[in-house]
Amino acid sequence: MDILFLAHRAPFPPDRGDRIRSFNILKYLSQRARVHLVAFVDDDAVITDEHRALVDECVLIRRTKSQLRAVAEALAKQRPVSLTAFADREFGRAVKDIVARRRIDAVYAFSGQMAQYIPDAGPIAIMDFVDLDSAKFAAYAQDARAPMRWMMRREARLLARYEQAVAARVSASLFVSAAEAALLPGSRALENGIDTVFYDPALAVPVASRHPLIVFTGQMDYRPNVDAVSWFARSVLPLIPDARFAIVGRAPTAAVRALAAANVTVTGEVADVRGWLAAADVVVAPLQLARGVQNKVLEAMAMARPVVASAGAAEGVDHAGTIHIASDARDYADRVTALIRDPSGAAALGRAAREQVIARYGWEARLAPLNDLLGLAGAGRVG
């Protein structure tokens, strides 16, 4: 079986939320079929021989279109900016070339921006929206100021129309959680998993800390993460005596870097996030805008750490009560402080969280529905 895999960002290395999902799906498919990858590539992509060995063809195209040009095209063509930003003739030619040369049995499009490259007729088409982008932009619009409020509302409206049209013409529409899938009728959930062999506390060397350590992990130029750590550092941390807050993740924005202080560490990119997670007395996920299953929560649970999360960050995770949910600043501070003061109870909560992740979130089990959706035969790759 030959599968054409389209991605808005090359799934290498698997070190951020979307790439972790796309990499593991690509890996799963490559064990069962011949995969032909066409993807945009960012400056931080690291492509190894091991990665290339997963696919029969690997066409990587660098994005060069500026945001200003994407906006101008979107306004002129009455299209969402999210789509014009990824509209690229070279990418389209690469897709047509593979379809012309190969007998493609199925297309797997990862992220809504890739729907524009799905052939109009022919093979089975699976659209992995991951999250519902129209709902995300609608949420952004709620606290945006003019003229950005108008742009966000426009994006949400046009994307909602586009998402519905795409869902009507593909074989299946997938989302990262049941809550996201419910927003687009006829869709289904394909949940994220976690590599519990890699995220094992027994394999990590904790970073040194002389004070109680609270850790947040994530891509630090992603707006929901920026908003979350800014709010926590300013509104929650002052309520927790003698604690230190570590913001761990690549590409911190100027707003994130400005949070650095005697009790706040902004690490930037780290070689291995497990050392910071292993050192954490508590891991927090205070996201106010959270969509789908949060990898940061699964990773902390797999590392047997106690987690305090917002309702939104915990919504897509089947945690069976093994993480604590907090609401306002006082609630966060009280829950974090209680865990810091009760290390044995915190450790027991962390162990229970790891057991839940092992039982519930292995990648093989999470991705098994793809066998029926794509008509995959077995686990052995066709040579």
Features:
single chain, alpha/beta, Rossmann fold, seven-stranded parallel sheet, 17 helices, Glycosyl transferases group 1
**Tally of separate helices:** 17
Sheet having the most strands = 7 strands, parallel
- Beta-strand share of residues: 15-25%
Going across the major beta sheet, what is the strand order?
3-2-1-4-5-6-7
Query: What is the arithmetic mean of pLDDT?
Result: 94
CATH class label of the largest domain: Alpha Beta
End-to-end C-alpha gap: 10 Å
Indicate the CATH topology of the largest domain.
Answer: Rossmann fold
Helix and strand run: EHEHEHHHEEHHEHEEHEHEHEHEHEHHHH
Protein name: Glycosyl transferases group 1
Pfam family, one: Glyco_trans_1_4
GO molecular function: glycosyltransferase activity
Keywords: Transferase
